[in-house]
Amino acid sequence: MISLVLRLIINAIGLWLAAQLVSGIYVTEPGGGSPTDLRTISTLLVLAVIFTAVNALVKPIVKMLSLPLVILTLGLFTLVVNALMLWLTAWLSGFTDYGLTIAGFWSAFWGAIIISLVNFVLGLAVPDRS
C-alpha cells in the first residue's frame, strides 16, 4: 500500500515537472490557485491516479499490439507509446474538473520522456514488491 502511494506521488512529481518544463503541457485545477496551493497538490494527485490507471490498464495492451514496431525500432517506439498514454491521460482528465492540457504530440512526447526519467530516478528509492 505504501509503495502504491509513493508511486502516485512520484507520478505527480513527474507530471508537475513536465508541466513546468514543456511549454505545451498545462495543469488546470478547479478555481485556479497558486503553485503552492493545496488545490494544485490535489489536482496533481488526481491526475497521477488517472495516469497510473491508464498505464496499468491500457499500456500493456498497446505495448502488446505494437510489439512488432517496438522490435523493429529497437525499443524506440516505446517512447511513442508513452506519449500516447500521456495524451490519453489528458483526454480522460478533460471529463473531470482537474484538467491536463497537452498542445500536441510533441508536447506529449517530451512530457512523457520527462515523466519517465522522474519515474526512473525517484523509483530507485521505492523498491518493487513482487
Automatic annotation (TrEMBL):
Q: Where are the transmembrane segments?
A: 40-58, 65-88, 108-126
Pfam families registered for this protein in UniProt: Phage_holin_4_2
- Is this entry keyworded DNA-binding? no
UniProt KW keywords: Membrane, Transmembrane, Transmembrane helix
- Key word Membrane present in the record? yes
Q: What is this protein called?
A: Membrane protein of uncharacterized function
